[in-house]
Write a structure and sequence with these properties.
Shape: globular
CATH class of the largest domain: Alpha Beta
Mean pLDDT: 90
Radius of gyration: 25 Å
Number of domains: 3
Strand content: 15-25%
CATH topology of the largest domain: Glutamine Phosphoribosylpyrophosphate, subunit 1, domain 1
Number of strands: 25
CATH architecture of the largest domain: 4-Layer Sandwich
């Protein structure tokens, strides 16, 4: 949820930390702060975005420091509750991502020992806990302190007079960037790409000591761990706006190349390098959260159509607490970051139940990749905008590939059918580009409808989950209340809310549900609701039923979710722009959810 960065080296730390922190602002922007070790421990923090902190903070001298951008989970987003936190003597400072579940017990015990607290947060407990264990060795103090902590965390700690950052993690991301005579700590590689592409990924329970010349990793038993660094294929340009006004728009326009990259070399290699060469499965369960859950719902239709395998989809947080302990489906865990806590916990639970597991993730080396039997990387590149766009589309591509592989293993998909599917997959970048070429038309529709308070999104079959995702995009960045429904459910309640002030977005591509969709559009039109339909080019009927139509290239219905969602992404983007919303930083939402 929150963003952590740290630097130790020969250069002045303050500007490096602020620059790195800005690249993590999508992880949190309620407040921000910085601590630099020089002649003294200098600490400054502020409520609001990083730009507010940058405009207020004094010049800080020193070549060692940590910084933090916060998404509030414990305590209001105020300056007092912002990170970093210092101990009573102002000799050490800490930053934290996660939630300390036993902080009240720890706080009471520390208060009884005379420690004074200045915030409402759980995080401040750890500063005092390390202080209580400090006997000259910061590494040892952190090890002893963290042994008393329950919950999720990534901590980074610095101390006055020291030359090191000590960091540790449990179920929250932490990466070490390796430079030349300098090293970095961060919660995401995107923060560090300007400075290095050589990364060490820290595992749960490990504690790491980082100086300018060395990195020492210790496991939970205190033994040294040897680990080779990984090179990240992304570069700094991938994480920049590139002339676009918002990251979200840039990432929408990157989708043709993201689809191409996700397919590159894979469709040909499935024959010789299948995902599961030694297994067949009688059923599949997909587990995910948020946008990834909607991708999983689309995946259900894809797998059942191509592989003929019964497939269910469950929200990660619900799977974790389900009582079924004996099951043996293929478990597919979908997460763009690879760090989503509920999905991570679901992966561990699935392994306990003896299930084969595969993750669909975008970040190499992320935590989920170490919890599963197989990983399908989506190759979307870094996605900075909080609202997922290209990661959703590439998750769909991964699910098409997985369904092809399962169909081949189960012998339910012929060689001829596979060739046809490959051809359709390769045509998707062109279908998406066609939608992007209609951006001005979609922008005009957003200008027409941006004053709406409520919107409904309806679809059937494979495009029902796309309606859910379109509604989510609209509500999270434009703050218009959007609801997605299977169109057949309109009579079961939603029609009570339909009026001239609530536009309906209807996905009505020509498939076996088309006539039913026209009937649903007629139902809402009869009640005065304006209808924006999405249909295939050449459809002369749709305009007779809808007020406005967005036309997409005609492709086989099973593949239509890809261009359809791109049209809805653009629509939500332009709605938000017309309403003056902070598109890349929607209120109360962070990119990666690493807490319960």
């Amino acid at each position: 949820m929150c963003g952590i960065v740290g630097y130790v080296g020969p250069r002045r730390a303050q500007p490096i930390l602020i620059d790195c922190l800005k690249r993590l602002e999508y992880r949190g922007y309620d407040s921000a702060g910085i601590a630099v070790v020089g002649k003294s421990l200098q600490l400054f923090k502020s409520e609001g975005e990083i730009s507010v902190l940058e405009g207020k903070m004094p010049e800080m001298e020193g070549s060692l420091g940590i910084a933090h951008t916060r998404w509030a989970t414990q305590g209001k987003p105020t300056t007092e509750n912002a990170h970093p936190f210092a101990d009573c003597s102002n000799m050490l400072a800490i930053v934290h991502n996660g939630i300390i579940s036993n902080f009240m017990d720890l706080r009471d015990a520390l208060k009884a020992d005379g420690h004074v607290f200045s915030s409402e947060t759980d995080t401040e407990v750890f500063a005092h806990l390390v202080e209580s264990e400090l006997e000259g060795d910061l590494l040892g103090a952190v090890q002893r302190a963290v042994a008393k902590v329950e919950g999720t965390y990534a901590f980074a700690v610095v101390a006055q007079g020291g030359d090191e950052i000590v960091a540790t993690r449990r179920e929250s991301p932490l990466v070490i960037g390796l430079g030349n005579g300098e090293n970095f700590v961060a919660s995401d590689v995107t923060a560090l790409l300007k400075h290095t592409n050589r990364m060490l990924y820290i595992e749960d329970g490990e504690v790491v000591r980082v100086t300018k010349d060395s990195v020492r990793i210790l496991d939970s038993s205190g033994k040294d761990v040897r680990r080779e660094p990984q090179k990240v294929a992304w570069n700094i340009e991938d994480a920049e706006k590139g002339g676009y006004p918002h990251f979200m728009l840039k990432e929408i326009y990157e989708q043709p190349s993201a689809i191409h990259d996700s397919l590159l070399g894979r469709v040909e290699s499935l024959d010789t390098e299948p995902f599961f060469s030694d297994s067949t499965f009688s059923n599949v369960k997909i587990v995910a959260c948020g946008t990834s859950y909607h991708a999983g719902l689309v995946g259900k239709y894809i797998i059942e159509e191509l592989a003929k395998i019964p497939t269910t989809v469950q929200i990660s947080s619900e799977y974790r607490y389900s009582s079924v302990s004996r099951e043996s489906p293929l478990m597919v865990l979908v997460t763009q970051s690879g760090e989503t806590l509920d999905t991570m916990a679901a992966a561990r639970e699935a392994r306990k139940r003896g299930n084969k597991t595969v993750a669909i993730a975008n970040v190499m080396g992320s935590a989920i990749t170490r919890e599963v039997d197989h990983v399908i990387y989506t190759r979307a590149g870094p996605e900075i905008g909080v609202a997922a766009t290209k990661t959703f589309v590439t998750q769909l591509v991964a699910l098409y590939l997985l369904a092809m592989d399962l169909g081949a293993q189960n012998r339910t998909l012929s060689a001829l059918a596979r060739r046809a599917i490959i051809g359709q997959l390769r045509s998707l970048p062109r279908a998406v580009q066609d939608v992007l070429n209609k951006a001005q038309e979609i922008e005009a529709l957003a200008k027409k409808y941006h004053g709406a308070r409520d919107m409904f999104f309806i679809g059937r079959n494979v495009n029902y989950p796309v309606a859910l995702e379109g509604a989510l995009k609209t509500k999270e960045i434009s703050y218009i209340h959007g609801e997605g429904y299977p169109a057949g459910e309109l009579k079961h309640g939603p029609l009570a809310l339909i009026s001239k002030d609530s536009p309906v977005v209807a996905i009505a591509i020509k498939d076996h549900t088309y006539d039913k969709m026209l009937g649903n559009i007629s139902e809402v039109s009869a009640r005065g609701s304006p209808v924006i339909a999405i249909g295939f080019e050449g459809d002369t009927e749709l305009a007779k039923f809808a007020d406005d139509v967005i036309y997409i290239r005609e492709i086989p219905p099973l593949f239509s979710p890809v261009p359809v969602i791109v049209a809805l992404q653009l629509f939500s983007y332009y709605l938000a722009r017309e309403r003056g919303c902070p598109i890349d930083k929607p209120r109360n939402i962070a990119k990666t959810v690493t807490v319960d």
